[in-house]
Amino acid sequence: MIFTKREIEEHYPLSERLRLEKAKSQNSVIYWINELVRNQVRGAEDVTSLIEVTKDLVMQVEDLYAEKENSLTKVTDQSSNSIELDSIEEQISDLYAEKEFLFQHTKTSSIAEVIALIRGMEDQLNSMYSEYET
From CA 20, how far away is CA 35, in angstroms rounded? Predict the structure, then answer.
C-alpha cells in the first residue's frame, strides 16, 4: 500500500514516521556500508569519517617516510661532516703553525707577550709622532 505524503503526515505521528524512515533506510545499501564501517574501523562512524581517518593515516605514513628520508640524509650529512671536520682540523693545524712562527720571529712565548710588544711599539710610535709635531 502506497500513501501520499499528506496521508502519512495526517495518520502517523512523528515517532512512527521516524521508525518507518529508519526501517526504510535499513534496506539501503548505504546504511549497511555505514554499519560495516562503524563495526570494522575504529574512529569511523560512516563513509565520510572513514575518508577522514584514511587521510589522517596517509599523512602519518607520509610523515614516517619523510622522517626516514631525513635520517638517511643525516647519514650522508655525517660523511660530509667528517669532510668538514677534516677541514677544520687542517685550519687549526695551520693556526698553530702560524702561532709558532709568530712566537719565533718576535722572540716571545705567549700571546700576552705579543700584545705587550705591539702596545709598546704603538706607544713608541705615538711618542715619536708627538715629538715630531712639536
Answer: 18
pTM for this predicted structure = 0.36
Residues 101, 106, 107, 109, CA torsion sign = negative
**Interatomic CA distance for residues 14 and 66, integer angstroms:** 54
pLDDT tens-digit map of 62-118: 999 988 888 777 666 666 677 788 888 999 999 999 999 998 988 889 889 988 988
Tell me the three state secondary structure of residue 13: coil
Non-local CB neighbours of 110 within 8 Å, separated by 6+ positions: 103
Query: 34 and 46 in contact (C-beta within 8 Å)?
Result: yes
